[in-house]
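Sample 1 of the test manifest.
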Amino acid sequence: MKEIVCKKDELQPGQTMRAKMGPFPIIVCRTPDGEYHAFNNKCAHQGAPMSEGVMCGASVPTDTPGEYDYQKEGEILRCPWHGMEYDIKNEGRMLADPEQKLKEFNVSFEDDDVVVSL
Amino acid sequence: MAESKQKQSNKKRPIIDVDIHEGALYEDLLPYLDNPWKRYITDSDWVMEKHLPYPIPGPDGLNRADAKTPDGRPAGTDLSFMQEQLLDEVGHEYGILTSAFDPSPSSMHGWYEMAHALASAYNDYQIDHWLDKDERLYGSVHVAAQEPQSAVREIERVGSHPKMVQVMLPIDDRPWGDPYYHPIFEAAERHNLMIAMHHNEPPSYYGKYPRYFVEWHCVMPNTHMVQINSMVFNGVFEKYPNLKLMMVEAGFTYAPALMRKMDQQYKALRHEVPWIKRLPSQIIREHVCFSTQPSDELSSEEFMTFVDLMGSDEMICFSTDYPHWDYDSPFQALPSLGEDLENKIFRENARNFYPKLQNTRRPVSQ
């Protein structure tokens, strides 16, 4: 199964969009470096629509209690409900529990079209 | 009745008991105190502040009514009587002394210099009168934790004693995981000491006390949860990976609910504590043990359900709480759990917990 979801320039770096692949709702993300990623539009936790959340960074692991280091700006998707953080560029894995992740789809290009497939 | 049957059969249980309350009168500590501290006790009748609004309603107050010493001193203040009534009777391999400070010097709300002097005197008394006199007994370093630097000095002073196995902190109104107290944990780790926490007189309802003792006593696990929560999320175990925590006298049945809740909250709120790099339940499994007393009097099946929910059978250590009124008998308090698990809970989990016990094994009779 594959679906043309948009034109390349319809999604700018730092933006997300809702789309469908067949009957399935998906979220397409474009990270600040220009990469495209597509995931199931349901949080792995309780199914909230990820497209209603925010694309942001995260406080990455530090070695000292009380120390914050905010990185990965534009590479983290946060769920609109409970705020679960998913790493877009690491297969959509949850930062707190990498065993859990958003289902990711393949993204390819046909001329100017962005194509999502299983 | 059941204890009498055990006595008749002369059966012993070579346990490692992680909560024995030895005690001292103020007069016992005077030889270990300098002035002005000694004078404040002898001349001014100074005693530590008290908090509980109720008596402890055992038949003899805090202690087993049969544990008063033959010469009428308070229970737990006489080694030979403790040997007779507990250590020899049960067949202890080892016992960990946790003291009967009431409250602890670390619970004092002022005059921390006196708290430090008392803790230091008590450590010397404990070594002279208990640890050096019975090979079965191991001890706890008492400190005035309100001022971490003085606590560190005391840990440096007595922490290397071969029979001091842990630093004792009270559970009251201070969450000890706060980085302000981390020098204590650093010093403990340096001396191969673990941390033990035991409630003294913690308020449990938003800093206040419930109306009745039974209410206060039933929700004691709440106050223990606060401390585990604090130690884990403030990164103590990530910062001091060799450190472990023994939670004494709230049982263990609250642990699965706490572990599950902490994992669930961490998944959403990890961003606030980025120094925590794995699920809290994993940290607890590696770093926290729970003493059994007061037993929740579970069936074998119920007991195993809790073990399954905790995800480990190496986190539970037996304790009697001798000589207190809610003492648990090593022969009666737990259901039958099979030889392997009983071996862990009554001995090996505690031996593995304390580095200074790991290479010791007393020949014992069964």
